[in-house]
Amino acid sequence: MSKAEGRALEAFPLKTDGDSRGSYDLNVVKRIIYQQGYEQAEKDLELTWESMRELHIIFAEVDTEIELCMTDIKSETIGYYLEVLRRFLQKKK
């Protein structure tokens, strides 16, 4: 069972209608939709080699700005990494 399948089952557990003609899982469609959304979200958030290249470029830009005193961010601080993350997410949009 994949992680997406497990999460879908947690969100929408097996729920039968209790019909005498046979049992039908009332949550099957909801689980399938949830699983597909989960899998798409994993793909959207996946880091690729293109993402890594972009991060490398952004780190170099921020480092250059620090060296040229164009920003008051100190390297290797939380603010430094937050700035890189902000720029990366902005470019992803």
Any chance you could write out the topology, listing elements then pairs?
Blueprint: H1 3-11, H2 28-45, H3 49-67, H4 78-92
Q: Judging from the principal axes of the Cα atoms, what is the shape? A: rod-shaped
Largest sheet: none
- Percent helix range: 55-70%
Number of helices: 4
**Termini separation:** 32 Å
Could you give the order of the helices and strands? Answer: HHHH
Q: Would you report the number of β strands?
A: 0
Number of structural units classed as domains: 2
In terms of DSSP E residues, the strand content is under 5%
Structural class based on helices, strands and sheet pairing: mainly alpha
Average pLDDT level: 91
Uncertain stretches: none
Global Rg: 23 Å
Care to describe what's here?
It contains 4 helices and no strands. It is an all-alpha fold. It folds into 2 domains: 43 residues; 44 residues, no CATH class. Helix 3 packs across helix 4. The longest helix has 19 residues. The relative contact order is 0.09. The mean pLDDT is 91.
